[in-house]
Amino acid sequence: MAADKPPLVLLHPFLMSGNVWRDVVPLLSSHHQVFTPTLLGHRGGPPAQRRPVTIWDVTDAAEDYLDEHGLQRPHLAANSMGAFVALELARRGRATSV
Questions:
Q1: Three-state DSSP class for 64?
Q2: Which residues, 6 or more positions from 57, have their beta carbon under 8 angstroms from its beta carbon?
Q3: Distance (Å, rounded) from C-alpha 8 to C-alpha 76?
Q4: Predicted confidence band of residue 3 (pLDDT cuts 50, 70, 90)
Q5: Whether the bond into 7 is cis, omega within 30 of 0
Q6: In sequence order, what are the beta bridge partners of 68?
Q7: Structure confidence at residue 21 (pLDDT)
Q8: What's the rounded Cα separation, in Å, for the pair 5 and 65?
Q9: Tens digits of per-residue pLDDT, 46-98?
Q10: Which of 12, 70, 90, 94 could form an S-S bond across to 16 if both were Cys, CB 3.0 to 4.6 Å?
Q11: Rounded distance between C-alpha atoms, residue 37 and residue 76, angstroms
């Protein structure tokens, strides 16, 4: 059962979406409950409520995603902008590992 597996959140690079991980998810799902959110302001993600959008807005929205999905301290893996968000979430105490 997926809920018995440790959660892993994959954060995508700038100008992409959570779909970028579609080929990777099957490789990880036997070991993790995998989440692939699309970050704030990216196609398929939550819309930006103000302009300009800052990286802090993106990070806050990613933290909201963790809260909404009951993910207190998941493992995080990321690329590019997503890696910045992952490191900031870890700094905030929201990651088991990055």
A1: helix
A2: 40, 41, 48, 50
A3: 6
A4: confident
A5: no
A6: none
A7: 98
A8: 19
A9: 999 999 999 999 999 999 999 999 999 999 999 999 999 999 999 999 999 99
A10: 12
A11: 12
